[in-house]
Specification:
Blueprint lengths: L7 E4 L20 H10 L3 E4 L5 H13 L6 E2 L20 E3 L10 H10 L19
Parallel strand pairs: 1-2, 1-4, 2-3
Helix pairs in contact: 1-3
């Protein structure tokens, strides 16, 4: 089912946008930048969500800019967010794209298809199942 809603999408860097060569920057993963550009063109806002900080984070942001991606926010839920150490650092996003997902990273083409043609799983109605249906 196609939708018109725009999503806030948190995207990891190492192992997701580029090959994992941390603290160096690896080669871009096939179709990563092309897919991110298409998602932005469709109105989705992208957050760079990464372990990197300081110079290594600055280098990653510049690398992405060089490849045509300017993020809505970097390691925060929105550009004006001020870090408060008393508050969780979990990013507020509708979708997370990360190579450490259970099952690993989908290919970028499949990721694009899921976002553009389907509601994210957590927004779909779910059927209630009994506790032991998980084990069947």
């Amino acid at each position: 089912m196609a939708h018109n809603k725009s999503f806030l999408i948190a995207v990891d860097f190492d192992g997701t946008i580029v090959e994992n060569k941390y603290p160096k920057i690896g080669e871009p993963i096939t179709f990563a930048f092309e897919t991110l550009k298409k998602l932005q063109e469709a109105g989705h806002r992208l957050i760079l969500w990464t372990y990197r900080y300081g110079k290594e984070l600055d280098d990653a942001v510049k690398f992405c800019e060089k490849h045509g991606i300017v993020f809505y926010a970097v390691n925060q839920s929105f550009p004006e967010e001020v870090f408060d150490p008393r508050v969780s650092r979990k990013i507020n996003a509708d979708i997370f794209i990360d190579d450490r997902n259970i099952g690993g990273l989908l290919g970028w083409g499949e990721t694009y298809h899921h976002i553009m043609n389907e509601e994210p799983e957590h927004l779909k109605p779910t059927k209630k199942k009994g506790l032991f249906s998980f084990f069947k």
